[in-house]
Amino acid sequence: MNTLYHPDTHDTDRPAGSYWAASAGPAPTGWKKMNGDETCEVAIIGAGYTGLSAALHLARLGIDVRVVDAGPPGGGASGRNGGFCCIGAVKLSDQAMIRQFGLDEAKRFYASQREAVALVRALIDEEGIAADPQGDGMLEVAHRPSRVDAMKATAEFNTDTLDLPTRFLERDELVERGFAGREAHGGLHFADGFGLHPLKYLHGLLEAVLREGVPVHPRTRVIGWKKVGSTHRLITRGGSVRARQVLIATNGYTDDALHPAMAGVALPVISSIVTTEPLSEDERGKLGWTTETPLWDSRTLLHYGRLLPDGRLLLGGRGDTVGGKAGQAAATAHITRWFHGQFPDWAMPPISHAWSGLACISARRTPMVGALAADPSVFHALAYHGNGVATGTWAGQAVAALIAGGDPAEILPAVVAQPPKRFALPALRRWTLRAAFMAYGLRDRI
After folding, report:
1. Half-sphere exposure of 312 toward its Cβ, with a 13 Å CA cutoff?
2. Which end of the chain lies in a sparser environment, N or C, as judged by fewer CB atoms within 10 Å?
3. What is the model's pTM?
4. What is d(CA 192, CA 175) in angstroms, rounded to the nearest whole number?
């Protein structure tokens, strides 16, 4: 397994030590490690949101599926993220997206993002998933007064041009809604989105897949991949699976050695999170954080937060390029400084849990969803740029439709229908990221 950071950061079999793991309850039973050789129509590598969504939608179409994953259920980003079900999934500006793909495709992309949020909500309802949905839309807060004018323009452009309902909020409106951080000079309210318990949602998807009779094999790492004729053979230490088609759904945990087309195409980015001990209702009121709507700030090197159902604060951010215990300690200190910047009159509430996971960036800064040009029997769906709850679920459904014979031009907006592209000098990806983070930090001070 290739690693850009401390090996613990890439190890999905290592317990995350997260609040989610402590509060989700046991994973559904019925899955097991592979033991022997199996045959199916479609093999899926990765049992996160994308892989399980694809498996569920394929099974509903009567297609024989197997799912394998290197770690336990929720061991990757699907069990470690902040639980933001929202629009996003690209690192391109709207203007750059329109220049590259055209306005119609940009609008189509955002329509698919809204569909993604609605799909998660529908699956929660249809499958009876106890994912603790919270909040009304999403909030982005202006961390400096200099960001306010651009946010006002964004709200108008989103609503009038991109068909993306967005409203600018003055500071007093943010306070009235329940967020009175000092670094909140205004903000955007996005109509689409909500918070959830990401591991409970993952467990619910897994349970739905198992109810459809799909064999799921966690702790079953693919260590070899051969193709003979039209049949792929995925080799694991417990056996193998033969399939006519394969989906790679490993996102930020994609091993460069998994398939030649995947080498150097994914840049895993560490996202670090802490949760506090629960605050009482009175404490939350005095603090000035009573909204359950998830939020983030306008920094490029963003910070994000949520008030959880039991009164805990979830606080997260980017910037760690080391990983392991040292990286987590530095990230926790960085998140604490952000809290103090928002609420300077308060001590940081006691931290109950601290952990990290890997988001995924592509060289094009867009998701990569589709079939390989060199081998159309191999599909890929990854690089959600920190928005995997909604986009990963949607991408799994979209790939299932492709595998079932659907027209890619009808199923995929051009923004996401991107083939894998290697980063320049992939061995230096971490150092490139460090340089970018330094530049982002300088930009965020303006």
Report:
1. 19
2. C
3. 0.95
4. 20
